[in-house]
Every structure is written in structure tokens, then in C-alpha cells.
């Protein structure tokens, strides 16, 4: 079945978008952005009910900047792993922000089937924001793909 039609994430309306926006806004306030002055906060619901979040962290070597989504993925892994069911990120004014291309790829790795994202243009699925994505499923040699995981990362 097409991931966008699976229901692991539940219906978009049932997802806790308000709580995610609040967590993203709280994370945004922790951003380290002396160069761009463009704080970003990201938050996501995991498949076991946690909310993980992250902020952008810039660097004097500008290109080394970590997007908020990088920080979120790191927190996901450090707090028990799992998969992302719903994702939201906000700018300094609290407005929804579309993750940059690199971050869509980062999020794709940890998506739950049917993962939903709150974006500037409304609620979208991962498939919609990153169609025909490259992922662990393309690493044909099992030795090089995510150890012991299936396409969606669940252990079997
Ligand atoms: O998806 C994105 C896009 C941009 N930024 C950050 C990086 C940089 O610090 C600032 C301006 O690009 O916004 C993120 O955190 N996530
Ligand atoms: Zn990014």
C-alpha cells in the first residue's frame, strides 16, 4: 500500500498539532542564531507517544550550521529511538516552516508509515514533500543498510 494512505499516523485531524506547535515554539526560543537571526524550532510526535524537539545551532563556519531537524533527530535517538508520526516546525514568528531539502531526507529516515507534516501549505505526507525518496530500501546489500531493520526501520 502507498505509505500516504496507510493509517499508522491516524487521521491528520486527530494528531496533536497544537501541542507540537507549542513544543516547536519552546524549542525555537533556545536556538543559537547569531549569524542569521532566524531561529527555528521543530517538534515531532513519536510512535510511542513522546514529543521530541530541536532548534537550529549555527556556527562561525556558517556551512556547519545544524538545522532544527538535525537536533530533533539527535534527541529522538538519544531518548529511545522510534519513528516520527507527526512533525511541525516554526520560525521566529511561530509560523509553520517547510523543512529544507536536507532535513526532509533526515526526517524520511525516521518516518512512521503515513507520517504527516504541518507545512506552510497545510498538512502534507512525507511522500508529498519528498517524492521518490532515496532511503534504506535502496541499499540493496543488507550489510550496508540500517542493521536489522526493514524498509521502514521497524525491527523484525
Ligand atoms: O529546515 C530548516 C531550514 C533552515 N533552518 C535554519 C538554518 C539556519 O540557522 C537558519 C537560516 O537558514 O534556519 C532550519 O533549522 N531548518
Ligand atoms: Zn534543514
Automatic annotation (TrEMBL):
Gene3D superfamilies linked: Cytidine Deaminase, domain 2
InterPro entries: CMP_dCMP_dom, Cyt/Deoxycyt_deaminase, Cyt_deam_tetra, Cytidine_deaminase-like
SUPFAM superfamilies noted in UniProt: Cytidine deaminase-like
Domain CMP/dCMP-type deaminase: 15-137
Keywords: Hydrolase, Metal-binding, Zinc
Single annotated GO MF: cytidine deaminase activity
Cofactor(s) listed in the protein's UniProt record: Zn(2+)
Substrates-to-products reaction catalysed: cytidine + H2O + H(+) = uridine + NH4(+); 2'-deoxycytidine + H2O + H(+) = 2'-deoxyuridine + NH4(+)
Pfam families listed in its UniProt record: dCMP_cyt_deam_1
PROSITE patterns linked to this entry: CYT_DCMP_DEAMINASES_2 (PS51747)
E.C. code: 3.5.4.5
Family according to the record: Belongs to the cytidine and deoxycytidylate deaminase family.
Function: This enzyme scavenges exogenous and endogenous cytidine and 2'-deoxycytidine for UMP synthesis.
Protein name: Cytidine deaminase
Classification lineage: Bacteria, Bacillati, Actinomycetota, Actinomycetes, Micrococcales
Amino acid at each position: 500500500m502507498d505509505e500516504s494512505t496507510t493509517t499508522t499516523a491516524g487521521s491528520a485531524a486527530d494528531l496533536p498539532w497544537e501541542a507540537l506547535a507549542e513544543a516547536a515554539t519552546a524549542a525555537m526560543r533556545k536556538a543559537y542564531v547569531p549569524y542569521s537571526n532566524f531561529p527555528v524550532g521543530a517538534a515531532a510526535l513519536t510512535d510511542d507517544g513522546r514529543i521530541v524537539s530541536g532548534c537550529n545551532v549555527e556556527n562561525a563556519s556558517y556551512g556547519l550550521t545544524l538545522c532544527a531537524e538535525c537536533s530533533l533527530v539527535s534527541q529522538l535517538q538519544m531518548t529511545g529511538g522510534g519513528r516520527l508520526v507527526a512533525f511541525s516546525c516554526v520560525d521566529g514568528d511561530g509560523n509553520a516552516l517547510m523543512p529544507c531539502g536536507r532535513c526532509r531526507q533526515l526526517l524520511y529516515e525516521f518516518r512512521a508509515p503515513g507520517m504527516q507534516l504541518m507545512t506552510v501549505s497545510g498538512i502534507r505526507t512525507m511522500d508529498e514533500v519528498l517524492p521518490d525518496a532515496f532511503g534504506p530500501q535502496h541499499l540493496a546489500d543488507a550489510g550496508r543498510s540500517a542493521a536489522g531493520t526493514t524498509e521502514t526501520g521497524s525491527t523484525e
